[in-house]
Amino acid sequence: MPPDSTKYNDVDVTKKSMNKSIRVAVTGAAGNIGYALLWRIASGDCFGAAQPVNLQLLEIPPGMQRLEGVMMELNDSAFPLVHGIIGTDDPNIAFQDADVIFLVGSRPRTKDMDRSDLVAANGPIFVGQGKAIESVASRSVKVITVGNPCNTNALIACANAPSIPSRQFTAMTRLDQNRAVGQIAEHAGVPASDIRDVFIWGNHANTMYPDPRFATIEDVPVTDLFDIEWLQGQFIETVSARGKAIIVARGASSAASAASAAIDHMRDWWQGTNGRIVSMAIPSEGWYGVPKGLVFSFPCRCENGDIVVVEDLPIDAFAQSKIDENIAVLLEERDAVSELLGS
Ligand code: NAD
Ligand code: LMR
Questions:
Q1: Quick one: pLDDT at residue 133?
Q2: What is the pTM of this model?
Q3: 325 shares its domain with 252
Q4: 204 a catalytic residue
Q5: Which of the 8 DSSP states describes residue 163?
Q6: CATH code, domain with 28
């Protein structure tokens, strides 16, 4: 007899302990991020060990053969939590009744581009996918946009799904938050787990503001431990330029760390943050003077499946200048895609 016969690959498969399966759609499922993301979703890292999933995978026609291979490998992994897998090149099939959607599929930049240079190639993808979400997804769907420029792509998807509440559309700045934690951990010589409440304001772009003012290492403020020159200088520069540094070093944009951050983002949204502050880009409701509707990264907490912006943090002159800079850039991006935002 095995030690616990109700367990299979470490998951308790007793039917009564399982929730009803949820539908999780992933676009660009045969791409680099998709390849890392799907195994983490399937293993229970995102939705928990009692939550089965039906995977609904989207690719474009040239990616369908690679997707077939990915689906074969998923099947070969025999995940107890995976209750079904479909692959399609039709967003209306991939998003049918989806409870969660990871919008990843889109082109990555090369080392001589800024992320905003991708908007002409990638922006139109989010028109059709927004419309498909409007038509067929669950009315309570939770959407994370990873494909770049992710803030503006989330805005486009949201604008094309007018009957879905805008706070169900998010863009990912968690990778930037994780990079900020990584830099602080390295600088202090402590594990990442000792650090909390560092977060990102604004756009997933060079202008982002990784804010260390409320961050602590084992309850000691980071601002008491490091000098302001490092915190307002090299720290911000390293975090905001990290995407390009990885492209230069790897010859390809971040993939495993991006998938891991997408899991962190959605896990926290689904399961809660237990009071911790995390970064999520969401359509502004006017918080901190950010124009309504702009998809902007704010300090957030998650509770009962909802995202709550932390509204009462003091803003000093430096933080205000960074917030203003991000508002300006995002307004420019919004103007550039005005024809994609529907009527
Ligand atoms: P990739 O080229 O390896 O994979 C992208 C996949 O998307 C490909 O398989 C492609 O066929 C598919 N695809 C393209 N258009 C599609 C569409 N309309 N519908 C469905 N699938 C489509 O790229 P990747 O490394 O996986 O990166 C994907 C995106 O994520 C890029 O835009 C990249 O810049 C972005 N990214 C964002 C972050 C972030 O922090 N927000 C981090 C890393 C990467
Ligand atoms: C990242 O931050 O790694 C991604 O957005 C990829 C990129 O283009 O920088």
A1: 98
A2: 0.96
A3: yes
A4: yes
A5: T
A6: 3.40.50.720
